[in-house]
Every structure is written in structure tokens, then in C-alpha cells.
Design a protein that fits this description.
56% of the residues lie in helices and 13% in strands. It is built from six helices and eight strands; from the N terminus they run H-H-H-H-E-E-H-E-H-E-E-E-E-E. Strands 1, 2, 3, 4, 5, 6, 7 and 8 form an eight-stranded mixed sheet that branches. Among the domains are: 39 residues, no CATH class; 119 residues, Mannose-Binding Protein A, Chain A (Roll), CATH 3.10.100.
Amino acid sequence: MNERLDVFAEGAGQSHNHSKWTTELKSSENIYENEEEIHTLEPNRTGPALSGAGDGKKGSRRAAAAFLGLLFVLLLTGLITLAFLNNKGHSEWKKEMVLSQTRSNNLSKELFQLQKRFEDMTKERNDLQRKLQDHHVQLGWVFYSGSLYYISSLKKSWQQSRDDCLQRGADLVIINSKEEQEFARRFRKLVWIGLTDNKTEGTWKWVDGTPLTTSYWAQNEPNGVQHRDEDCAEIKIYDLENSWNDESCSLQRFWMCEKKKTW
Ligand code: MMA
Ligand code: CA
């Protein structure tokens, strides 16, 4: 070691002539020679006590080193695999995100279009309903509480009256509330209503087949005056709530049709 220091000292302090460099190189070679020497001596440094373990100890150390190396390689492989999988997962997740975003955008567009279509169709429906209503009004129909009513200006028998209603896409009026009864009286006309006992005498039924539950017969009605065969109902005493009379079906009366509003 002293020799090495000397050489560097010489090199630094003295002139840069060729012989000096040669000396330096030679000295360097020497240094390595010494190192080799040290290496060859190494086993002896362990001392006599340890050298007793011999080749067996040497083998187990190699095995341990090999094991550690293998462990290191395995760990490295694991890490690389994890990094790869993570990266792969990440890119797949990103792809999924883009797809989801696209799908979401498409659905938003579709929703917007459907909303627009719904609005357009609602407008269209309202326009058609208005037109239909105007049409009915022009034909003499009156709107009241979800139904259309037609009050005739001619007089006919009960059956002819009913046929007229059927031709208009309606039927004779069915009165099933106090309000409807009041509405029907308001026209102050003697009108046929859709009530008859022509199937079974004494059993009054509405034209839709439903039985009579709430009735507004006038006082002493229905009386079925003898020899008149009074099987059809009319609104007669329209000034009173209880205004109905059973009358001979062949008599000529105004009539009232009802058409349920289906829109
Ligand atoms: C008429 C006819 C009948 C009704 C009575 C009431 C005379 O017959 O309308 O149906 O019951 O009047 O007085
Ligand atoms: Ca009567």
C-alpha cells in the first residue's frame, strides 16, 4: 500500500516524462498483483477455528446464495408480473371508462330525442283533441265531466232515438250521479234517457246492461199506467230533481245521447 501511495505522490509532484509513467504503470501492475495475493490469502484470514468447517460450509453458503438469488429472481418476476397486470388492468379500465362514457353520451342523446318526440307527440295529440272537440261542438255536442252529450232538436220514439245515438257513436244517456241528473235537467226538455224495463217488466236497466241503483223518479212514478205499456224512461218534470217518468216507448220525445270521452 505504501508503494502505491508513493507512486501517486511521484506522479503528482514530478515532471511528466515517459520513464515516470512507465514506473507508474509498473507500480499499478504491482498493485493488482498484491490484490491477487490478498485474494488467495483470504481463506486463511478466517482463522484456524473456522477453517475446520471446510468444504461443507462452503457448499451451504453457495446453496444459501443460490437460494437468495432464486428468491430475488422470483420476487423480481412477481414484481414485473404485478406491474404488467396492473398496467393491463389500468388500460382495460381506461377502455371501459371510454366505452361507458360513449354509451352514456348515446343514452343522453337518445333520452333528449325521446323527450323531444314526447313533446312533439303531446302537442300533436292536443291539437288533434282540440280539432275533435271543435268537430263535436259543430255537430251540436256538449262537453260535461268527461262525457259528450247530444240533445236532439227532433222528436222520435225511444228506439228510433236510441238508434240515432248509436249512429253517432253514442247511446242514450246513462245517469249515474246527482250532478249528471242536474246537468240533464238543465236543457228543460222532455227527453228519452237510456233506461227501460222492456226485457223484464218492473226491472229497470240502463242501455249498457247495468241495473238501476240510484233513481230520480217523479212522485208516484214509475206507475206503468194501464194499457199504455210504459217501458221507457224520460225526464218529464225537469224543474224537480225527481223528474223521471215511465212512458210508452212509441211516443215522440226529444232525446239525449251520451258518449264517454276516451281521451
Ligand atoms: C201520463 C203519462 C204517465 C204518467 C202520468 C202522470 C196520464 O199518464 O205521462 O206516464 O205517469 O201522466 O200523471
Ligand atoms: Ca208513468
